[in-house]
Amino acid sequence: MWIPTEHEKYGVVLVSFRGTVQHGLPLEIGDTVQILEKCEGWFRGFILKNPNIKGIFPSSYIHLKNAHVKNKGQFETVIPVEDSVITEMTSTLRDWGAMWKQLYVKNEGDLFHRLWHVMNEILDLRRQVLVGHLTHDRMRDVKQHITARLDWGNEQLCLDLVPRREFSMVDPDEISVTELYRLMEHRHRKKETSAPASTHHLFVHVKSLMSTNLGEELEVFFHIYDGRENRPLSERFFVKLNKSGLPKSPEKTERQCTLFVDLGSSDLRKDVYIVVHIIRIGRMGAGEKKNLCSVQYRRPFGCAVVSIADLLTADSKDDHLLKVYACNTESEWYQIHENIIKKANSRYNLSGSNTGLAVALQLLHGDIEQLRREYMVLFTRGVSITRKLGFSDVIMPGEMRNDLYITLEKGEFEKGGKSVARNVEITVYVLDIDGQILKSHVAAGSGEPGGDEYHSLVLYHNNSPRWAEQIKLPIPVDMFRGSHVRFEFRHCSTKDKGEKKLFGYSFVPLMQEDGRTLPDGTHELIIHKCEENTSLADCSRYLKQPFSKTNLPSNNQTLKGTKESFWITSFLCSTKLTQNGDMLDLLKWRAHPERINDSLSKLKEIDGSEIVKFLQDTLDTLFGILDESSQRYGLKVFDSLVHIINLLQDSKFQHFKPVMDTYIESHFAGALSYRDLIKVLKWYVDRIVDAEHQDHIQQVLKASEYIFKYIIQSRRLFSLATGGQNEEEFRVCIHELFMSIRFFLSQENKSTSPVAQTQAVFLRTFPAVYGELLKIFTVREVAGFVRETLGTLPTAVHADCLEAVKLQCIAKTVESQLYINPESRCILLPVVLRILQAHMQEQRDLVMCARILTSMLSLIKKEENGTAEPVVSEEVELIVESLLGVLLRTILEISNRPQPAGPAMRLQFQDVTGEFVACLLALLRQMSDRHYQQLLQAFSSKDNLRDFLLQIFTVFRILIRPEMFPKDWTVMRLVTNNVIITTVLYLSDALRKNFLNDKFDYKVWDSYFYLSVIFINQPCLQLESFSPSKRKKILEKYGDMRVMMGCEIFSMWQNLGEHKLNFIPAMIGPFLEVTLVPQPDLRNVMIPIFHDMMDWEQRRSGNFKQVEAKLIDKLDSLMSEGKGDETYRELFNSIIPLFGPYPSLLKKIERETWRESGISLIATVTRLMERLLDYRDCMKLGEVDGKKIGCTVSLLNFYKTELNKEEMYIRYIHKLYDLHLKAQNYTEASYTLLLYDELLEWSDRPLREFLNYPMQSEWQRKEYLHLTIVQNFDRGKCWENGIILCRELADQYESYYDYRNLSKMRMMEASLYDKIMDQQRLEPEFFRVGFYGKKFPFFLRNKEFVCRGHDYERLEAFQQRMLNEFPHAIAMQHVNQPDQTIYQADAQYLQIYAVTPIPESQDVLQRDGVPDNIKSFYKFNHIWRFRYDRPFHKGTKDKENEFKSLWVERTTLTLVQSLPGISRWFEVEKREVVEVSPLENAIEVIENKNLQLRTLITQCQSRQMQNINPLTMCLNGVIDAAVNGGLARYQEAFFAKDYIMNHPEDGEKIGRLRELMFEQAHILEYGLAVHEKFVPQDMRPLHKKLVDQFHLMKSSLGIQEFPAYVRASPVHFTNGSPRTCRNSVPNIISPDGGRGVARRSLPSYPAVNRYSSSSLSSQASNEVSNITGQSESSDEVFNMQPSPSTSSLSSNHSASPNVTSSAPSSARGSPQMAEKHKHSRENACLSPRERPVSAIFPNPLDPAQRAPCHQIGDTTLPRSDPNLSAPDKAGSSAKNMRSQSPVTSRSPQKTTVPPFTPSPTECQSTSLVSNSPVLSGSYSSGISSLSRCSVSEASGTELPAGDHPSHPLPPPTTLPNSVSSSSDEPIRRENKTPPPYSVYERNNPRRPVPLPHSLSIPPQTDPPALPPKPHQLRTGSMKLDGTSDPRVPRPRPLPRKVSQL
Known about the structure:
The protein is α+β, with helices and mostly antiparallel strands. The chain is built from 65 helices and 42 strands. The strands form eleven sheets. Strands 1, 2, 3, 4, 5 and 6 form a six-stranded antiparallel β-sheet that branches. The two termini are 79 Å apart. The relative contact order is 0.04.
């Protein structure tokens, strides 16, 4: 039986549990579970991170933990009873875990690894805490480390700042808001700036000395040196090095490491240095030979210097290698470091090029105790401490130190009868009072232990040596008296014996007879001469002699006159000994009572450090004097006491205050002193008002805190001693003292007067007295003193400084123990509030006001049950009454002020705002119902209440601003919102009661609604964006505050009644914003308001156009701000709901009379919403891509066509324009801007400023737009469109007689014409893209588009770009139309293949003599229709001859708008599919090849070809393939009897095929004749071979003689096709040339080609040039390739590879090659762009079916060509590839023009020229491979499917034109409105211009002309008139509202 658990509430999973049992709950190790019930070894419960799923699990898998249960029962929450730091760590690590993985996904490697290390570190520290074996101090350190790391991680991951107190998280409900703000602020400040440490320490670790000339032991001395004052700052650190330069005692680290302690911040300057002196110990001369002498001397070696400032910038972990310098003359050794610092190079040099001292130097900051904790290893391993000379900046009590430093400065010695100067060495001894040498009390420095003696340096041959060596004498205090230091002088001989001979000595006593120590400074000592064997053991003999020349008696001339002297400098650093006689006199006052007056007077002159050394003794002395002679010395003692107290205020001695406190508590014994102290203090206070000089009185008042301490302690001692006698007398004295104080405080003075300053001094110290008074008086008595004292302060004070001090005094009062007590608080509160209110009303000292208010409110707390104590309630009432209004005004005032400059000021400004806000929130949180009622009743009039409500609503709006708190203060924001919503609920009642019906006030209600809306939309309340754990915490603590506020809005709206009309349409936008919040309950609450709005609007005006307009405008702006969510997209897919799955709105509308317009509005808004969401999602992406542009076009069209919103339409035109410019789509940008241009007229109507346009007339704006558009057309190389606009502008200028601009415009127009003729234009590819599946944005979903590719972009690149734009899309591997499963799939499918454009304007393309530069524009611009051919086999495939069953499926796509346009892609409006039979296919292939041959022959004859190679290759390819059985395959397939019998209807077509074959042979024969004339000598053998093969070919075709009709007609190569041509006449052509007479003929085959004959394919010319060794230009026609559609089908989706091979293997005469080898060989020859794409279509084609990608044209169509031999196919491109570089051909006018201007006699119809297919990059085929598309439809017209029954298939010649007679074309044009912005339509039809006669080619006589080829005109296919189809007129543009734009 399942029993609810009592104690087993919370546990952690130890072992993973799969949950395979019934009702089992799967668990992972580490999950935390809450347990609800138990039953026989099983628990039932849930995982805390997913509380919705409950289940059972084994109890043995769970480790139970103690937990505290809140809200027992169904909704209980369990909190583990453990250290709060552990709880926080656990939850934080869980949150980090998920985010950490995301860092890896986002490729933020650096943060990923750093966070990983920190997480591991936290886990390690967590283990230490959980084990529980840490000491209290260590636990504190570990917690500090943990919280520091948690904060670091939260900051890095942009998580919330956690308020903490003592490392534990704080519950914001358990502390006041002001306290919470302080904690947050403190943590924020800590994060921003760490306070700089005032104390610094230098760590030095000596590693080694590197030098080439070592061999002697060394001594290294470090000290810190002040270069500014030229004195050492520290004692010396001393390290001994062995002969190798390494430390002598490596095992003792304290002998090689030291810490120079207590450096002040002022010591870290550029001119403070670390100076290193190195002394060698050995022979006198460094290079002396080793002799028997064992005596060793200390001799100079070198010096190194480094600036401390360099360590601040250097990496502390690096070792420093210090350069060592030696002095040039030994006598300057004492100042070598100064010379190095001054860079006096002449005085020193490097001691050796390789000499360097390796040391580790590191600056450490902070207190020494802090360092002990942080660098524990350093201190445990051992480090010596090197102290400063003198005390540190801050002297600590209890510091014991007694060091005497003596510096051996210099000596003056006589020669002593020697010819050379002496080598002097000094030996130093310290001797005690008995003359015994003190052992170990002479230290060369820290690091090494002290010795018994010290030997100085020896300077060679120097009678005036200067040593400057410092030694330290750490002599105990008790041994100082009677001790002295003796200096013995010896001459060191350099002779063999090397003996040291004593020749004199000096001495100096350490303490004078009166007890003073040796004064600091330099002392000139007398050198007493002696013999070398003199014994100095009995010091009593010489101590009687004088030691210093300064205190020699005047009669002792003998010693005074001697030249020999020795100078030392002494410096005492002692906490126990003094050198000050006055100090000693005062302390010994009883011995000399007559000196008391002088001693007290001189006390002020004594150095502070001397006084604090003897603080207790001094105070005892003062109170001793006071007790004995109070009448006589009372005032002097009082002044001395004041001096000492004020001395302790100094920062250097402030740490001695506790010493004085301890003295007062424990040692002070003056039980009678209080009377004298009160008396003297009162005497001073009474004199304040009259005194002229206030300085001394101010000093007295400054010390009043400690004076009161002495008074109170003295009184307590007296009471204890006497049992409380004279109590009343004492109280009277104190009352009188306070009366005097109140009197002097009540004086009104100007700020400059001394009295005002004295008042300020008293007020600063007064709050410190409270605590002392409380020791004797009751709380209420003390509160009375304070209230009366502060109450006497004048209210109207003129002194600003006093005002500030007054507030400081109040602040300290509020923070004192006195105020914390509720009893005293109720007494003090009125006074505090009065002063505070006065200041806040005048907006003065706001920082201090905020501090006071914060302290006051942090004391007020509600009890557990939420009710306040009566006292607290009264306090809140008082504060609300006094300060609420002024607090609101203050917040408004400072929020509206301009922020001050300077970071410090801004910080302070921000602080004060934040603190006032915290105070307001704290106050509002404390207010109960009663407080609100009293507050609202207190308003005397409605106007006052209205002002208050407006004020508080405005303040709340300020509080909600994102910049109110730092972004990671979520805790603070949530508390703020909780207070706001509680207050709003109270105030809404007041709003309802006082401002409805006849008292309705729009402003207050509007302010209320506005506040509610921005409250709901705050980022910090959008719980959906938070992690699950954070969301759960917020919901548990506060619930969803958005829903609460939403319900409040709804209820208030319902109360409005007819006043609702005031808020329509103003509130539509804000309420719509609320519904965009993805919270279902909130949407449910808000929806009925919209119905209400529509209903009221309908009643008022009969429609709701206003509602609709506002709704649409607001939707757009909200979407662009990023509002709305994913669920919206799904919600809007169905038309029914507007804002969620709640049908209430639609159902309500359906019940209304106006339901039709209502439903229509909902439908429109729904569709707009879909587009806006798509637009927003696209705009979130980074760079500009097609998706963004497509989305903007979709939205722009929607605004134009469905909503008729002109302003929005124009805005989106400009957004689209900017996108195009960014993507460098200049042509599209022009078309886009043209949309706006066409809305304007050439009028003078003024237009307002709009977007980036200034205020100007409509004419000016249209002119500006025209110029911008022309400029962009120019950049996009769409010059023809630019010309039309230039003309329009020129007409305008002409009409205004603005000839200057007219001239410019005509020149611009001329330049555009030049560019058309001179500049090369890249011809774009076109691609058809299908977007299938529900995951695509709405504007793409299940639609197909045709896209214009970028420059140089081929299919493979385009496919990759699309897959990059849609990374989740799947590329479809076939070109068949997808089925419904793909359409409905929850995925993205992309289907991409290339298509061929079908040009519209055939007249230009068919006209003779039009240069290709011009034609190329018409072939690729204004294209509505595109074609794609797919070869397939119908029926059984004949393996011997594949041509029998090879059909072509031809798909024609019609777009909604022509390309190019306002986008690079447009949607397909209609698709038509027809099938081309094998026979028709064969006819087209041979026609194309014939056309190609004719074109090449013509070009060769007219000398347009600089190089005959293209013709050679083409002839070779056709003849070779034909010989090897190419055409024979067609004969077998279509001339066989069974085919003719089975297809009687194809008789005419078979005849046509036969004609074409004979025609081909005829053309070849003629071509060979032309070839023979021009072929170079080295190509003759090839020509001969071709002639031989041609004869073979003729015989294989069975041709002996050409039929009569072939012979009779000459070969003509006009601009027509080999069939009928539009502007063609038969041409008589000889190999030398031909004569052409132009004559118009009816159009028959208006085919178009993608490549112009002038835009030469460089590959073609290069391939040919490989044969001839030249690289010259050739026509591109030989280089034709498959259409884009075929290139996209490089894997041939519908036919298997064997179907698509070029010709059956049996038909080829050359050896066969395996398919894979052919393919790889072909690919090896192609450039990367040309290789078959395998990314999407992996099945590569036979090489024969591929062509170079850059040639993909609209005219090369899928065919299969039997005329091409395998070796040619595989090899020709292999041998002929070269780098592709366009080469221009010769031109008679300019060399810069792109390829030749053709003559009228040449075949100029590029459509015909390039209808020739090319195989495998060679020119050899006559019939193309399967994957090519036919060009026959390039004319832009198609055979309709409906023509099949009556007209099975027209003869191939006219196949494309047959469509013109069908009815389909006009219908399509009617269905599709051309864009109103088509520049093309501006162009009026141009009249045909006859070709000048001079351009025709003169006739030539030989070779004999060939008969023309026959033309069979078929009526069904001809257009009898040359006109194009009539178009529907352009639709009228939008209704004009441009005047407002």
